[in-house]
Design goal:
379 residues, alpha/beta, Udp-n-acetylmuramoylalanyl-d-glutamate--2,6- Diaminopimelate Ligase, Chain: A, domain 1, Alpha-Beta Plaits, 3 domains, 6-stranded mixed sheet, 5-stranded mixed sheet
Length: 379
């Protein structure tokens, strides 16, 4: 029998799609359930719906991993009924843990080419230009203890930059100058002013790391616990850093030039839906942007990238009008349709857990919850 726990599944998802990539308003990770419970099976779906929970029960699975979270604002009441509170109640009542990766999955480099691959486009670069909120933590420490302090901070969640982990910076040695007080217990030197009336001088290095703002206090506490000084100098500052490869949206090129109408027909055939198209049908396209889900916040970046069309899940009406005025055409697939391929990435992140039976993993079929007269009703 597998000894994999719900916490192991959450760690696997977070390792593939780090939580610091998510928007600060987002809710990602384990939102409901016992992290210590042994996993009997995992179901993967786009949304944590009652139908998905029913499938978990039918398949004997006690973990539901989705792209969309069960809630963005925690429900004030968890009881039978509609809404987020009702879904959470149903999950807990069925013994099913809810785990998700939302905007952190949207930014994953592995997600960048999903729409492009379906459409036969070639990805050239990410589109999003916004910075990433982080905390910058600086510690002054004797060189002999620097490795211990760095290890402690990394263990508390510091040092992840894009696809790189364990990142830190240690400067050359300098001089730390201090005068121990009457009631101090310094690591070096005596209490009060040293002989000759001079302050103590100790060789120190400067260690720097970055961490998600939500983990800054824990990183500072870890540094303090590992530090040899009674009163170490540890400074945490909120900063903005450039995003690396973990960015939303992709700028792509087509293998052969095409018109907007040809791209729309291709999208309809590739995804099996009738998309909504904004822009002149005969517009010639050389550079095409793709983005999953709601893409309104990316339109300025898409225009700046030089793209002539955007294929996305959806945009708001006035955002679409602004885009057209700037010369950007838009093809809306439907929010859910554009994100179907993301479910496969969630499955891939979990299937690598050692000791977890592949037969206990189940990916639910993706189909739209809406229809148009042209494409017919969903079965």
């Amino acid at each position: 029998m597998s000894s994999t726990t719900v916490a192991d599944v959450e760690r696997a998802v977070s390792a593939a799609f780090p939580t610091e990539w998510a928007e600060d308003w987002d809710k990602v990770g384990l939102l409901a359930g016992d992290p210590e419970r042994v996993v009997t099976g995992v179901v993967f779906a786009l949304d944590p719906t009652r139908a998905a929970l029913a499938e978990c029960v039918r398949l004997g699975a006690n973990v539901l991993v989705t792209h969309h979270p069960a809630f963005l604002t925690p429900p004030s009441l968890v009881r039978p009924g509609r809404g987020a509170g009702g879904v959470v109640f149903a999950a807990l009542d069925a013994g099913v843990a809810l785990i998700n990766a939302h905007t952190n999955l949207d930014r994953a480099p592995s997600a960048a080419s999903l729409l492009a691959d379906v459409l036969g486009l070639t990805v050239s670069k990410p589109i999003e230009r916004r910075t990433m909120p982080m905390s910058h933590i600086t510690v002054f420490v004797p060189a002999t203890a620097s490795e211990r302090v760095v290890t402690a901070m990394l263990g508390a969640g510091a040092g992840r930059i894009g696809e790189y982990s364990g990142c830190s910076y240690t400067s050359a040695e300098g001089s730390g100058i201090f005068t121990p007080g009457a009631h101090s217990a310094p690591t070096s030197g005596g209490v009060g002013r040293s002989a000759g009336g001079h302050s103590e001088v100790t060789s120190e290095v400067r260690v720097e790391v970055v961490a998600p703002r939500s983990r800054a206090r824990g990183v500072v506490s870890a540094a303090r616990a590992a530090h040899p000084y009674e009163e170490p100098l540890i400074v945490a500052t909120d900063v903005e850093i450039a995003r690396s490869v973990a960015r939303m949206g992709s700028l792509c090129t087509a293998r052969e030039p095409m018109t907007l109408e040809e791209l729309a027909v291709l999208a309809a055939a590739s995804f099996g839906v009738t998309p909504r198209v904004w822009g002149p049908a005969d517009t010639r396209l050389a550079r095409i942007a793709t983005a999953t889900g709601s893409a309104g916040s990316l339109i300025g970046d898409v225009i700046a990238s030089g793209a002539q069309a955007l294929v996305a899940g959806e945009v708001r009406y006035h955002d679409a009008l602004d885009a057209l005025e700037a010369g950007l055409c838009i093809i809306e697939l439907g929010h859910d349709v554009s994100e179907w391929p993301l479910v496969s990435l969630l499955h891939r992140a979990v299937e690598g857990i050692v000791g977890l039976d592949p037969e206990s993993l189940h990916v639910l079929e993706s189909k739209p919850g809406w229809w148009t007269p042209q494409q017919g009703r969903p079965e």
